[in-house]
Amino acid sequence: MILTITYTQPPATDLGYLLYKNPSRPQTFELSHGKAHIFYPEATKERCTVALILDIDPIDLARGKKGSSGEGGLFDYVNDRPYVASSFLSVAMSRVFGTAMSGKSKDRPELAAMELPLQAKITMLPCKGGEEIIHRLFEPLGYKVAVEGYMLDEKFPEWGKSKYYTVSIEGKVKLRDLLNHIYVLIPVLDTEKHYWVGEDEIDKLLQHGEGWLINHPEKGLITGRYLKRKKSLINQAFKRLVEDSGVIDEEDEPDQPSQPQETEKKLNLNQQRLGTVVAVLKSVNAKRVIDIGCGEGNLISLLLKDKEFEQITGVDVSYNVLERAKDRLKIDRLPEMKRKRINLFQGSLVYRDKRFSGYDAATVIEVIEHLDENRLKAFEKVLFKFARPQTVIVSTPNKEYNTHYSNLLEGDVRHRDHRFEWTRKEFETWAAGVAESYGYNVRFLQIGEIDDEFGSPTQMGVFTL
Ligand code: SAH
Predict the structure, then answer these.
(1) 7: burial class by Cβ within 10 Å (0-12, 13-18, 19+)?
(2) 185 lines ligand 1 (CB under 6 A)
(3) Which end is more exposed in the chain, N or C (fewer Cβ atoms within 10 Å of the end residue's Cβ)?
(4) Atom of ligand 1 nearest to the CA of 260
């Protein structure tokens, strides 16, 4: 990944003094996971640009388990970290531009204290939440923002856009502010960090956010994401941040983890659904359970409370979600006996995977509607043909019930990531077809309040061999 910073006020080569990096001398710095190279692609009186290139060694990453899920597996070797602007870049910035970030300059102190015409370009910045959020974060800081997006694959436009962007910002700012803005906002946009986020992270946020974070309209979002949505850290940081500034209004509250089924949550449907799953699992005497698309681990934490469940495995396609599950389950602090019963790994239910085999039961709760409909066939094979547990529990929203959600317009789905929602007839036809193809029996349960005409909010199929 490349970060460039351009200064356009003659003599522009003063940038070298401000950054303590001589324009005529390329330099390389050794970091714990690779190298940072500094050089100046242009250095004239009118325009001077410094480039910071980070060369991360993917093998080092995997060996040191830095930035890895800690569970091993393919993720350690196949991930975007060597190629994108991430917390590795922030760490490199503080290492290489540390003095400039603190606002000090031996040779040009007056320039260091002044707002200067500066531009920065961050290449391949992963951004959760789409392009709009980049504007929301940089524009209130006074930048003109230009964003270049990419297709996931130009040959397959139907796959849509990628989450990577090249971001250019331009404004009249102090160099130290520019550097600190970028330092903080890169991991905020990326939402990942390659190291454990603990209390010292609050100090870093407040130090690099000094003078600007308190006035930023998105300070809740920034604080929430920077501290990886750890509630206790966020609350502490927020308290310290606003200590001097008096009252906070509601809107400033930190951004808390979003709940996928916000619409349903009010009805406490989630608990009813998971309660039913546990009851069914007990009724078939399942000891070894795999929860595919486990999300933040709600079901896992319920199963863990019951000693009957000897082996509980959670799988999710999302690395972020698994990290949150680990946090929520407090995996690192569980007593050995409990810890041994849980296993979490990253995987997808549309790819055949040996690790899905050997369980008495598989649960796929509120997941299939997140798959593109044309991937369902692959999912069916992976689970019912190859993994083939004795019992499979699948749940999904019942579309007919959506008329009860007053905030949904006709045709809306309950969550923006749902690719489809089915009526009872559609679900039952699909499930009966699957059961027939793979030799299972299936029965159906309704979960939540039952409406005579429209059925219940959640529908569940219980498949048994
Ligand atoms: N089962 C959980 C979470 C439901 S949200 C619960 O009931 O609370 C849907 C989850 O499915 C998300 O965490 C999402 O990351 C995951 N998911 C989506 N596609 C997936 C796939 N192909 N393989 C595995 N998990 C997937």
Answers:
(1) buried
(2) no
(3) C
(4) 5
Question: Does residue 110 form part of some domain?
Answer: yes
Residue where one domain finishes, among candidates 176, 195, 214: 195
Q: Is the pLDDT of residue 264 over 60?
A: no
d(CA 207, CA 230): 19
CB 224 near ligand 1, within 6 Å? no
67 lines ligand 1 (CB under 6 A): no
**Is any ligand 1 atom within 6 A of the Cβ of residue 222?**
no
State the amino acid at position 375 in one-letter form.
Answer: R
- For residues 279 and 190, membership in a common domain is answered with no
What does each C-alpha distance from 241 to 31, 82, 215 come to in angstroms? 31, 33, 10
Q: What is the 408 CA–ligand 1 centroid distance (Å)?
A: 22
Q: Whose CA is nearest to atom 25 of ligand 1?
A: 293
CATH code for the domain of 50: 3.30.1610.20
Q: Which range marks the domain in which residue 308 is found?
A: 262-464
Q: Ligand 1 pocket test: pick from 299, 317, 329 the residue with the most ligand atoms within 8 Å of its Cβ.
A: 317
Q: Is the pLDDT of residue 260 over 50?
A: no
Ligand 1 pocket check for 348: Cβ under 6 Å: yes
Q: pLDDT tier at 62 (50, 70, 90 boundaries)?
A: low
What's the token pair of residue 244?
A: 């001097």
Q: How many CA atoms are closer than 13 Å to the CA of 83, on its beta-carbon side?
A: 6
160 in Cβ contact with 151 (< 8 Å): yes
Residue 233 has pLDDT above 70, yes or no: yes
Backbone angles phi, psi at 305, to 5 degrees: -70, -15
Question: What does the alpha-carbon distance between residue 3 and residue 36 come to, in Å, rounded to a whole number?
Answer: 11
For the chain, percent of residues with pLDDT exceeding 90 = 55
The torsion defined by the Cα of 449, 379, 78 and 62, in degrees rounded to 10, comes to 70
pLDDT digits (tens, 9 = 90+) for 94-143: 899 999 999 999 999 999 999 999 999 999 898 888 888 899 899 989 99
How far does residue 316's CA lie from ligand 1's centre (Å)?
6
Whole-model pTM: value is 0.52
Residue 114 belongs to some domain of the structure: yes
Coil/strand/helix, residue 209: coil
Q: What are 28-59's pLDDT values in tens digits?
A: 998 877 899 999 999 999 999 999 999 887 76
Q: Number of C-alpha atoms within 13 angstroms, CB side, residue 402?
A: 20
**Which residue lies with its CA nearest to atom 12 of ligand 1?**
295
How many angstroms is it from 255 CA to the middle of ligand 1? Answer: 22
Pocket test for ligand 1, best of 277, 319, 368, 370 (most atoms within 8 A of CB): 370
